[in-house]
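In response to the reviewer comment on reproducibility (Comment 2.3), we provide here a single inverse folding case reported in full, input and output, so that an independent group could reproduce the run without further information from us. The structure tokens appear first.
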């Protein structure tokens, strides 16, 4: 189709005039809605939502009617002389117009307006104005509209494909107790199940509803441990309410309107307003169902936003997300409802609301907050090496070493998946009696070795250097070395690393330096851990709950562990800045426990989100920071950050505390602990 044919096409002309008239039509609809919402501020969120959706529907109907009106009228052509459109007469009228003069009844001066006369403001007079000024621009306008239509349609297609990917890739069923909770929520909210499905995903970072015919609620796999179960239950209820209200379908219609009228700012304002009111309406319904949960719900939304900012995850606009809309306005409305419904406790509620809102503002939205610092640090190429002490895993189950083998296999699979070049430090007494190897436990070390993971050593009996005479300590390390070298020799692999049990480096500086020289003479380097932690206490509590099949306590321990370990990263990253003014390459010590194995996606996902790249122990300790001198000795084991701080006579940072519940379990069971 050449340009002339394109210009003269009636379809192009009809589309062009529809686009032109849509500008003032949609603007008028938006203005009426804006004034109505301002005049009736007490309307409920549901009513405001219905009004806004109705306005959007009307914004489609009026241009559609305009297009139909033009399609049914005679064709209009562009006059080259006048520069505006004229009506093309029907063919059988042409001869009559050529032979007759146009006459008006005598005395009728209103039939044809004089040049200085203002015509009556009507659709026809408005059309005449457009004829004189815009007709010659119609082909260009339609061409640009078609181009924009294609680009925005491509954008929507990409969003739909991304949602399809979310629904079909890296998803799994949640744990049985969460499936039961979901079924009860569906029954409580009157939502049919199926077709609604509930899945966990490793691709999304905030709960979303994907799809409209067969909707799926996708919850990030890590979220089960990152926020309190009660908070997550309320968030899932929020998504179910969206499904029951057919919000995903309305959201799809909005996306279609944004494509058709992409050029009109009022459409974007209407669509954004609908999404905002939709969240307000869903929030109101949530609070009706979960009474006395205002603060819990507000805190859940704040936590979701913090996670979103940390991950910078982009969710397609056609998906309804739990932390959508204006988050701060939503939290304020939630807390206002709390204060309105508890007049007798107004002072307490208002004070708590102010504190919560302030906390959200400071920790989530402030550019100086930890959230933004962590988000920015993602670009700093942080590095982390990890050592596990000790392998094989400690047996606290009722059926060792079978359980240790299962834990080790899970651990190795996850380390391979995340490409973590970890070092596993063998406790020789767990795999050998000093002369012969224990087949099953030694095979766990072989599994570690064959997965391409480094194997190091500790002491044969995992004893404190401080409490052990020097010669006895060295003999224990040598005995461990002999046992492990048997396994490494099967693959001609070297032994390169030693890890001090309990991070304790002896009673005197002389003993430590002497031992370091002994290690160096054997081609072995000691590991200096910068990120120490009490993960083993959480692991012990987790094992005890697991032995009792106490799923509730297991979940609580995992949540508490993730909160604790995140704070420990904040703690030691602070030391790095204090001492070196930069992010040095870090080394972290963990135990190969079932807690770490079961929390791997959450733990190592969190580490990656903080901007860390997993590197070998050799690369990490090549950082110049590890050459810093320290002279710490004593009846304790502390991280090298703390050692370097003490060497400079600086005060130590206050360390995050282990949760009270885990501490109580440890104190109660400690006499039985291995």
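Designed residues, in position order:
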């Amino acid at each position: 189709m050449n340009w002339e044919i394109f210009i003269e096409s009636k379809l192009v002309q009809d589309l062009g005039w529809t686009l032109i008239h849509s500008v003032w039509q949609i603007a008028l609809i938006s203005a009426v809605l804006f004034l109505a919402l301002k005049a009736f501020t007490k309307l409920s969120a549901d009513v405001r939502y219905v009004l806004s959706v109705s306005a959007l529907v009307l914004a489609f109907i009026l241009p559609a009617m305009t297009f139909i009106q033009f399609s049914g009228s005679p064709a209009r052509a562009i006059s080259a002389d006048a520069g505006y459109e004229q009506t093309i007469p029907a063919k059988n009228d042409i001869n009559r117009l050529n032979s007759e003069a146009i006459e008006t009844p005598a005395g009728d001066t209103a039939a044809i307006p004089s040049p200085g006369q203002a015509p009556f403001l009507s659709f026809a007079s408005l059309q005449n104005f457009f004829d004189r000024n815009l007709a010659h621009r119609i082909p260009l306008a339609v061409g640009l509209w078609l181009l924009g239509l294609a680009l925005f349609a491509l954008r929507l297609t990409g969003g739909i494909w991304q949602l399809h990917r979310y629904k079909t890739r890296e998803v799994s069923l949640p744990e049985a107790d969460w499936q039961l909770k979901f079924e009860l929520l569906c029954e409580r909210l009157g939502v049919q199940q199926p077709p609604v499905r509930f899945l966990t995903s490793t691709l999304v970072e905030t709960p979303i509803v994907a799809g409209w015919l067969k909707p799926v609620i996708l919850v990030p796999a890590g979220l089960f441990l990152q926020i309190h179960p009660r908070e997550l239950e309320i968030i899932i209820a929020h998504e179910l309410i969206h499904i029951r209200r057919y919000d995903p379908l309305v959201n799809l219609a909005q996306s279609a309107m944004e494509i058709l009228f992409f050029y009109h700012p009022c459409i974007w304002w209407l669509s954004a307003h609908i999404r905002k009111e939709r969240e307000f309406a869903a929030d109101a319904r949530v609070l009706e169902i979960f009474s006395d949960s205002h603060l819990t719900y507000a805190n859940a939304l704040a936590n979701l936003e913090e996670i979103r900012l940390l991950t910078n995850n982009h969710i397609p606009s056609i998906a309804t997300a739990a932390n959508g809309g204006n988050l701060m306005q939503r939290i304020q409305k939630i807390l206002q409802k709390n204060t309105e419904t508890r007049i007798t406790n107004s002072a307490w509620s208002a004070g708590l609301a102010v504190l919560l809102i302030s906390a959200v503002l400071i920790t989530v939205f402030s550019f100086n907050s930890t959230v933004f610092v962590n988000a920015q640090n993602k670009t700093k190429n942080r590095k982390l090496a990890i050592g596990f002490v000790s392998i094989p895993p400690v047996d606290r189950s009722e059926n060792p070493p079978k359980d240790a083998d299962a834990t080790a296999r899970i651990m190795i699979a996850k380390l391979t998946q995340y490409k973590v070049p970890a070092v596993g430090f063998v406790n020789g007494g767990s795999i050998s009696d000093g002369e012969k190897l224990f087949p099953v436990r030694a095979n766990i070390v072989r599994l570690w070795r064959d997965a391409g993971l480094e194997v190091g050593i500790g002491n044969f009996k995992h004893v404190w250097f401080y409490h052990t005479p020097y010669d006895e300590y060295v003999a224990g390390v040598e005995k461990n070395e002999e046992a492990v070298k048997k396994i490494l020799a099967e693959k001609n692999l070297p032994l390169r690393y030693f890890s001090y049990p309990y991070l304790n480096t002896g009673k005197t500086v002389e003993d430590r330096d002497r031992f370091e020289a002994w290690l160096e003479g054997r081609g072995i380097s000691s590991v200096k851990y910068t990120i120490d932690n009490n993960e083993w206490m959480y692991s012990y509590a987790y094992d005890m709950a697991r032995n009792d099949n106490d799923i509730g306590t297991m979940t609580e321990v995992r949540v508490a562990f993730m909160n604790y370990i995140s704070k420990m990263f904040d703690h030691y990253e602070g030391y790095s800045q204090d001492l070196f003014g930069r992010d040095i390459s870090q080394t972290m010590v963990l135990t190969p426990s079932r807690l770490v194995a079961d929390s791997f996606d959450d733990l190592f996902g969190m580490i990656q989100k903080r901007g860390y790249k997993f590197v070998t122990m050799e690369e990490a300790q090549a950082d110049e920071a590890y050459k810093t001198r320290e002279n710490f000795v004593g009846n304790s084991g502390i991280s090298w950050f703390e050692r370097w701080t003490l060497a400079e006579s600086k005060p130590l940072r206050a360390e995050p505390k282990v949760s009270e519940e885990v501490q109580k379990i440890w104190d109660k069971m400690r006499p039985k602990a291995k």
